[in-house]
Structure of Metabolite-proton symporter:
Amino acid sequence: MMTDKMPPKHINTPRQVLFASMVGTTVEFFDFYIYATAAVLVFPRLFFPASDPASSTLASLATFGIAFLARPIGSALFGHFGDRIGRKKTLVLALSTMGLSTFAIGILPGYHAIGITAPLLLALCRFGQGIGLGGEWGGAVLLAIENAPPNKRALYGMFPQLGAPIGFLLSGGTFLLLSRWLTDKQFFAFGWRLPFLASAVLVLLGLYVRLTITETPVFQASLQRAEQVGVPILTVLRRHTRALVAGILVCLATFVLFYLMTVFALSWGTTALHYSRGNFLLIQLFGILFFALTIPISALLAERGRRPVMLGVTGLIALFGLVLAPLFTAGTTGAVFMMALGLALMGLTYGPLGTVVSELFPTPVRYTGSSLAFSMAGILGASLAPYIATWLAKTYGLQYVGYYLTASAILTFFGLILIRETKDSDLTDSPN
């Protein structure tokens, strides 16, 4: 009789699972993107003053990359606890770390107030953001797919991915409104701080939702079978090296594409191509709509097979790299089309990505393995992407930025060849 009363206390409803997995990543990516936007528009002027604006921008973009270097540390740290004590508690800690770091950026004094200490503290806060995000993404995806029916894992797994375009829309929309409502003097005096401070409200919302859910049934079953390993990261490196390398390569083109379409495009568009800050943010927000719309399309297709979808989209990304420069320099219409096309491809590759990478690893090391693959791909594909792209464009021309994207797609293609089709795999199977 007791079993009839217990399930409601321990079973998460689909609505709870999907909202909890999406709201956390929305908050995380909002925090991450407001830094990316400020790294182009604000920090070069307030934290890295120099006689040459290009040098200030490059220095600011370098701090942007610090978070990606911190991500693997966060993946190892939070992955350890996520695989040892559970997904729920670890997700709460990861979100708190990200939120505190973001709020701290909003209260930092600038270079003219405290000198060299200002950029150092900024870099430290950025490092904290990376630690938090290193533990957030993998856990959010596992929260979704480990609660999903076997034939709906790609659909459930797309909800954390939807947090990316939603977070970007909130971030870009906030900066756009601030640009419209405030003068340049007001924006640089205090306006840029408001999104960082407001993120505290979103973090509290995310924490509240995360605290209402229970542990995933897949992890609970693994815990009952006593499958936990002592040091998950060592097990990943020793026994799942092929899956880890393949996972990194599979994620590579996604990272390069996204950060070229967002950080680099905003920087290049508002400097070399002379778009106003507000106008280019509008172009990006329009493109993000295509990002959001194509995520569910690719997730639906991936229920029939993960690899065919990812291989096809990766080929299209390689071709897109060859037309990126001609479109970007073809006036406003070309820039709008480039942004819409690039971010539509981003949605198509990003929708199934979390599911694909997570399914490569067994339950006892899934949090660590998937998070580490995603984070390492971030170092290789995103941390220096805006910096490399800016250097290529200034040194050899904008077309080489497109070649850079095409090369990353070729590497991702090789990664997809290395993996097996995971559509019919059973997440509850014991590891070999």
About this structure: Residues 1-9 have pLDDT under 50 and may be disordered. DSSP finds 21 helices and no strands in the chain. The two ends are 37 Å apart (CA to CA).
